């Protein structure tokens, strides 16, 4: 029997809220509290003994896994496929009604954006690719709430808009693949 591959999937810690004046979604950092939360994750994430650390290229996701990478002497590598959902919205303070619409109709995409259905396909494919690339190893992955929810849904976990709204920052899930082509066993760590 082969050794399972584990993906430890981390939603970023508390980040600076988006504003009309920026920073943009790509460069938005963690708050002071979020930086403390990232430091507090080091013990839990290190105990998993990751062989590799990957992240969304978004600053807040990298900042969340960087302290663990530093503690383990591993680089944080980025993959575009691990990025957050491209909702197709310019900054708006009334974004929630747009998100509710997308969660009601998973195939709906705003011009220039991706649907939640497309995100789910991207998320599952990205995590399966990492599992194939690191067979029998543990891989730490820094990402985002909507990405994680759509990945979980893609692996058969019931997820809805309320799930995203209630997911803490940070949140940590373990996906245990006995085969990268099958559904993983999923557990919540934090």
From TrEMBL:
Q: Name one GO molecular function term.
A: phosphatase activity
Highest taxon above the source species: Bacteria
Q: Which GO terms describe its cellular component?
A: cytosol
Q: Which SMART domains does the annotation name?
A: PGAM
What protein does this entry describe? Histidine phosphatase family protein
